[in-house]
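Researcher: Here's the sequence for the chain we discussed earlier.
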Amino acid sequence: MRKDMPGLERRRLQRLRREYAKKGYQVLVEPRGEELPSPFAAFEPDLIAISDADKVVVEIRSKASIEGATAQAELADAVDRSPGWRFELVLTNPQSDLQEEASLDELEAALRSVDAVRRVSEPAAFLILWPAVESLLRRHLSDAPENEATELSTLIKTAYSVGILSKPHLDLLEETRKEREALDHGFRFHLAKPRLIEDLASIAADLLRALPSGDETQISEPSAGP
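Model: Thanks. This is the structure I predict for it:
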Protein backbone atom coordinates (compact mmCIF):
# COMPACT_ATOMS: atom_id res chain seq x y z
CA MET A 1 0.00 0.00 0.00
CA ARG A 2 1.24 3.47 -0.91
CA LYS A 3 1.08 4.97 2.57
CA ASP A 4 0.99 8.54 1.35
CA MET A 5 -1.80 7.98 -1.22
CA PRO A 6 -4.43 10.70 -0.70
CA GLY A 7 -8.00 9.63 -0.10
CA LEU A 8 -9.18 10.90 -3.49
CA GLU A 9 -6.55 8.83 -5.29
CA ARG A 10 -7.41 5.76 -3.24
CA ARG A 11 -11.10 6.11 -4.05
CA ARG A 12 -10.24 6.40 -7.74
CA LEU A 13 -8.09 3.27 -7.41
CA GLN A 14 -10.99 1.28 -6.02
CA ARG A 15 -13.29 2.58 -8.74
CA LEU A 16 -10.81 1.51 -11.43
CA ARG A 17 -10.50 -1.90 -9.79
CA ARG A 18 -14.24 -2.38 -10.08
CA GLU A 19 -14.36 -1.08 -13.67
CA TYR A 20 -11.60 -3.39 -14.90
CA ALA A 21 -13.02 -6.38 -13.02
CA LYS A 22 -16.44 -5.74 -14.54
CA LYS A 23 -14.85 -5.90 -18.00
CA GLY A 24 -13.38 -9.32 -17.23
CA TYR A 25 -9.81 -8.35 -16.35
CA GLN A 26 -7.79 -10.04 -13.67
CA VAL A 27 -7.00 -7.12 -11.38
CA LEU A 28 -4.08 -6.75 -8.95
CA VAL A 29 -4.31 -3.74 -6.65
CA GLU A 30 -0.91 -2.44 -5.51
CA PRO A 31 0.89 -5.69 -6.42
CA ARG A 32 4.27 -6.26 -4.85
CA GLY A 33 7.01 -8.86 -4.89
CA GLU A 34 6.12 -12.11 -6.66
CA GLU A 35 2.78 -10.69 -7.79
CA LEU A 36 4.59 -8.42 -10.24
CA PRO A 37 5.57 -9.46 -13.76
CA SER A 38 9.35 -9.65 -13.93
CA PRO A 39 9.86 -6.47 -16.06
CA PHE A 40 8.21 -4.45 -13.29
CA ALA A 41 9.64 -6.17 -10.23
CA ALA A 42 11.55 -3.07 -9.15
CA PHE A 43 8.43 -0.88 -9.16
CA GLU A 44 5.32 -0.40 -7.06
CA PRO A 45 2.44 0.23 -9.47
CA ASP A 46 -0.98 1.12 -8.16
CA LEU A 47 -2.83 -1.41 -10.28
CA ILE A 48 -2.24 -4.08 -12.92
CA ALA A 49 -5.10 -5.38 -15.05
CA ILE A 50 -4.78 -8.34 -17.42
CA SER A 51 -7.18 -9.78 -19.98
CA ASP A 52 -6.71 -12.02 -23.01
CA ALA A 53 -6.47 -8.96 -25.26
CA ASP A 54 -4.93 -6.32 -23.01
CA LYS A 55 -2.36 -5.87 -20.27
CA VAL A 56 -2.15 -2.50 -18.51
CA VAL A 57 -0.10 -0.98 -15.71
CA VAL A 58 -1.91 1.87 -13.99
CA GLU A 59 -0.63 4.72 -11.85
CA ILE A 60 -3.03 7.17 -10.16
CA ARG A 61 -1.87 10.66 -9.33
CA SER A 62 -3.11 14.16 -8.74
CA LYS A 63 -1.28 17.12 -10.26
CA ALA A 64 0.41 17.71 -6.90
CA SER A 65 1.65 14.13 -6.51
CA ILE A 66 2.85 13.74 -10.12
CA GLU A 67 5.33 16.65 -9.99
CA GLY A 68 8.82 15.34 -9.41
CA ALA A 69 7.62 11.72 -9.45
CA THR A 70 10.53 10.30 -11.45
CA ALA A 71 9.61 6.71 -10.53
CA GLN A 72 6.54 7.03 -12.75
CA ALA A 73 8.72 8.01 -15.72
CA GLU A 74 10.93 4.97 -15.12
CA LEU A 75 7.91 2.69 -14.82
CA ALA A 76 6.42 4.11 -18.03
CA ASP A 77 9.72 3.42 -19.80
CA ALA A 78 9.77 -0.16 -18.49
CA VAL A 79 6.21 -0.71 -19.73
CA ASP A 80 7.05 0.76 -23.14
CA ARG A 81 9.92 -1.74 -23.44
CA SER A 82 7.62 -4.68 -22.64
CA PRO A 83 5.72 -6.01 -25.68
CA GLY A 84 1.98 -6.37 -25.15
CA TRP A 85 1.84 -4.03 -22.19
CA ARG A 86 0.61 -0.44 -22.00
CA PHE A 87 0.97 2.25 -19.35
CA GLU A 88 -1.97 4.34 -18.19
CA LEU A 89 -1.67 7.32 -15.88
CA VAL A 90 -4.97 8.44 -14.36
CA LEU A 91 -5.26 11.99 -13.06
CA THR A 92 -7.61 12.80 -10.20
CA ASN A 93 -8.98 16.19 -9.27
CA PRO A 94 -6.89 18.06 -11.86
CA GLN A 95 -7.56 21.53 -10.51
CA SER A 96 -4.91 24.23 -10.62
CA ASP A 97 -3.01 24.83 -7.42
CA LEU A 98 -0.88 27.50 -9.12
CA GLN A 99 -3.00 30.60 -8.51
CA GLU A 100 -2.26 34.19 -9.41
CA GLU A 101 -0.59 34.61 -6.00
CA ALA A 102 2.17 32.20 -7.00
CA SER A 103 5.60 33.72 -6.57
CA LEU A 104 8.01 34.08 -9.45
CA ASP A 105 10.20 31.42 -7.83
CA GLU A 106 7.23 29.02 -7.78
CA LEU A 107 6.44 29.77 -11.40
CA GLU A 108 10.07 29.24 -12.44
CA ALA A 109 10.20 25.95 -10.53
CA ALA A 110 6.98 24.80 -12.17
CA LEU A 111 8.31 25.56 -15.65
CA ARG A 112 11.60 23.79 -14.91
CA SER A 113 9.68 20.65 -13.96
CA VAL A 114 7.76 20.39 -17.23
CA ASP A 115 10.26 18.30 -19.20
CA ALA A 116 10.60 15.68 -16.48
CA VAL A 117 6.87 15.55 -15.80
CA ARG A 118 6.09 15.22 -19.51
CA ARG A 119 8.05 11.97 -19.62
CA VAL A 120 5.45 10.58 -17.23
CA SER A 121 2.36 12.21 -18.65
CA GLU A 122 1.50 14.95 -21.11
CA PRO A 123 -1.72 15.71 -19.19
CA ALA A 124 0.35 16.36 -16.06
CA ALA A 125 2.69 18.65 -17.99
CA PHE A 126 -0.34 20.45 -19.37
CA LEU A 127 -1.70 20.92 -15.86
CA ILE A 128 1.54 22.64 -14.86
CA LEU A 129 1.78 24.85 -17.92
CA TRP A 130 -1.78 26.07 -18.19
CA PRO A 131 -2.08 27.60 -14.69
CA ALA A 132 1.42 29.04 -15.09
CA VAL A 133 0.36 30.85 -18.27
CA GLU A 134 -2.79 32.08 -16.54
CA SER A 135 -0.84 33.31 -13.53
CA LEU A 136 1.67 35.12 -15.73
CA LEU A 137 -1.07 36.78 -17.76
CA ARG A 138 -2.65 38.04 -14.54
CA ARG A 139 0.69 39.52 -13.51
CA HIS A 140 0.98 41.32 -16.83
CA LEU A 141 -2.57 42.63 -16.39
CA SER A 142 -2.27 43.43 -12.71
CA ASP A 143 -3.73 46.92 -13.19
CA ALA A 144 -6.58 45.88 -15.47
CA PRO A 145 -10.11 45.39 -14.06
CA GLU A 146 -10.40 42.18 -16.09
CA ASN A 147 -7.64 40.65 -14.01
CA GLU A 148 -10.22 39.57 -11.45
CA ALA A 149 -12.62 38.15 -14.04
CA THR A 150 -13.60 34.55 -13.44
CA GLU A 151 -13.88 33.85 -17.16
CA LEU A 152 -10.48 32.91 -18.46
CA SER A 153 -11.52 33.82 -21.99
CA THR A 154 -11.85 37.45 -20.89
CA LEU A 155 -8.33 37.43 -19.50
CA ILE A 156 -6.91 35.99 -22.72
CA LYS A 157 -8.77 38.43 -24.95
CA THR A 158 -7.69 41.40 -22.81
CA ALA A 159 -4.06 40.30 -23.00
CA TYR A 160 -4.39 40.26 -26.77
CA SER A 161 -6.13 43.65 -26.93
CA VAL A 162 -3.31 45.37 -25.02
CA GLY A 163 -0.57 43.71 -27.06
CA ILE A 164 0.68 41.12 -24.59
CA LEU A 165 -0.36 38.26 -26.86
CA SER A 166 -0.13 37.99 -30.64
CA LYS A 167 -3.10 36.79 -32.70
CA PRO A 168 -1.64 33.26 -33.07
CA HIS A 169 -1.24 33.13 -29.27
CA LEU A 170 -4.83 34.28 -28.80
CA ASP A 171 -6.05 31.51 -31.09
CA LEU A 172 -3.85 28.88 -29.45
CA LEU A 173 -4.93 29.75 -25.91
CA GLU A 174 -8.59 29.89 -26.86
CA GLU A 175 -8.33 26.42 -28.42
CA THR A 176 -6.46 25.16 -25.40
CA ARG A 177 -9.26 26.11 -23.01
CA LYS A 178 -11.08 23.02 -24.31
CA GLU A 179 -8.19 20.82 -23.15
CA ARG A 180 -8.31 22.36 -19.70
CA GLU A 181 -12.07 21.94 -19.36
CA ALA A 182 -11.89 18.32 -20.45
CA LEU A 183 -9.22 17.52 -17.87
CA ASP A 184 -11.09 19.39 -15.14
CA HIS A 185 -14.04 17.08 -15.76
CA GLY A 186 -11.93 13.94 -15.70
CA PHE A 187 -11.96 13.20 -19.42
CA ARG A 188 -9.04 11.60 -21.19
CA PHE A 189 -6.39 13.93 -22.50
CA HIS A 190 -6.19 14.60 -26.21
CA LEU A 191 -3.67 16.94 -27.82
CA ALA A 192 -5.54 19.44 -29.98
CA LYS A 193 -2.20 20.33 -31.65
CA PRO A 194 0.89 18.14 -32.00
CA ARG A 195 3.11 20.82 -30.45
CA LEU A 196 0.70 22.09 -27.81
CA ILE A 197 2.99 21.41 -24.85
CA GLU A 198 6.00 22.99 -26.56
CA ASP A 199 4.02 26.07 -27.59
CA LEU A 200 2.55 26.56 -24.11
CA ALA A 201 6.02 26.20 -22.58
CA SER A 202 7.34 28.81 -25.01
CA ILE A 203 4.53 31.24 -24.18
CA ALA A 204 5.03 30.77 -20.44
CA ALA A 205 8.81 31.21 -20.65
CA ASP A 206 8.50 34.37 -22.73
CA LEU A 207 5.87 35.85 -20.43
CA LEU A 208 8.10 35.11 -17.46
CA ARG A 209 11.15 36.73 -19.09
CA ALA A 210 9.12 39.81 -19.97
CA LEU A 211 8.05 40.50 -16.39
CA PRO A 212 11.27 41.83 -14.76
CA SER A 213 12.10 44.30 -17.53
CA GLY A 214 8.53 45.42 -18.14
CA ASP A 215 8.86 44.40 -21.80
CA GLU A 216 5.70 45.52 -23.61
CA THR A 217 6.47 43.92 -26.97
CA GLN A 218 4.52 40.93 -28.23
CA ILE A 219 6.09 37.59 -27.49
CA SER A 220 7.22 35.37 -30.34
CA GLU A 221 4.54 33.51 -32.28
CA PRO A 222 3.99 29.79 -31.67
CA SER A 223 5.35 27.36 -34.19
CA ALA A 224 3.15 26.20 -37.03
CA GLY A 225 3.81 22.56 -36.21
CA PRO A 226 6.47 19.86 -36.33
